[in-house]
Amino acid sequence: MYTVKEIGRIFKRAPGKISFIWFLDIIQIIVGNCTYILIGLAIDGLLESPKNYSFTLILIIAEIIYLISAYMNRKYDTRIYSRLKMNQKLEYYETNASSSTLSVAQYRLQLVEEVICFLEFELFNIVSTFLGILISLGYLFYISTQTSFVVIVIEIVALIISLGSTCKVRNKIISYEMEEKNVTENERDVIGSLSQNRYFDFLKCKRLLDVSYSDLDARIFLVIRAVQIVSLVLSTISVLVFSKVILAGVIYTTITYIYSLNEDSLEVNNCLIKIAGFRDSVKRINEKLKET
């Protein structure tokens, strides 16, 4: 609830500009993910006799649209979000620095940093991942109607197994991230104490958290990659077995979307960890604001 409220508050500051950035994001994601279909159709068109160049032309137009949207996104998103960040921080500083304690002002400024950084850097990757999964599943469902529903069933089962089998590990990573943030916040106090033993314990604790995080991340990667390899092999075999007419472009697009789906399913865990981390950070800052 805190996260939605804070994002909504930032959005109200510049709804038109933020919507423009989100619009560019959506165009970039959709065109980028649909390119595989156009490449496959262009391949089949070039292998026809006589050659069909229509999908090659459409592919070129799509790439130009992608180029323009990606360029404008990279050019304007930092300008818009950095100005929002600057204005919000100045507003909080002016209203809180004189009338409230220093800690309140610091927490307010930290909250602005967390929310805007999430919107600028993390939101695109999260939306891209989930939209990529939907587009991949949509194409695989379509190709399954042309061949066999074995393909879509294999990929859905693989996606469920990947997310289900890593749920506990993912929750541990989220708790480690929060613990690491709490430890990092105490670094200045530890250094200021001028105690070598206390600083050694701090560094040791931070190292153990980093190692534990790395071990859990490696475990997630191993499980999901193993599931992906099996699903990729089975799905490819089923396409080859059940297809009445095997076209080079269809085979290329199908295998590419299977691989893309597997990559996105691996990224889902990272997205869920980022969302949970952002939610917990905003909640923690709001709770500290209530305490002060």
Sum this structure up briefly.
The chain is an all-alpha fold and 292 residues long. Helices cover 91% and strands 0% of the residues.
Structure explained in plain terms:
The chain is mostly helical and 292 residues long. The chain has a single domain (2-291), classed as ABC transporter transmembrane region fold. The chain contains nine helices and no strands. It has helices spanning 2-13, 15-47, 54-96, 102-146, 150-165, 167-185, 187-192, 196-242, 248-291. Helix 2 (15-47) runs parallel beside helix 4 (102-146). The longest helix has 47 residues, at 196-242. It is globular. The two termini are 21 Å apart. The model has no long low-confidence stretch (mean pLDDT 81).
State the main characteristics:
9 helices, ABC transporter transmembrane region fold, 292 residues, globular, single chain, 91% helix, mainly alpha
Topology:
Layout: H1 2-13, H2 15-47, H3 54-96, H4 102-146, H5 150-165, H6 167-185, H7 187-192, H8 196-242, H9 248-291
Helix pairs in contact: 1-4, 2-3, 2-4, 2-9, 3-4, 4-5, 4-9, 5-8, 5-9, 6-8, 6-9, 8-9
First and last CA, distance: 21 Å
Nearest-integer average pLDDT: 81
Task: Assign the CATH superfamily.
Answer: ABC transporter type 1, transmembrane domain
Please, how many helices? 9
Tell me how many strands there are: 0
| Percentage of residues in DSSP E strands | under 5%
Low-pLDDT parts are none
Biggest pleated sheet: none
Please compute the radius of gyration using only Cα atoms: 24 Å
SSE succession = HHHHHHHHH
Assign the CATH topology: ABC transporter transmembrane region fold
Structural class: mainly alpha
CATH architecture classification name: Up-down Bundle
Overall form: globular
Helix fraction bin: over 70%
How many structural domains does the protein architecture include?
A: 1
Q: Can you identify the CATH class?
A: Mainly Alpha
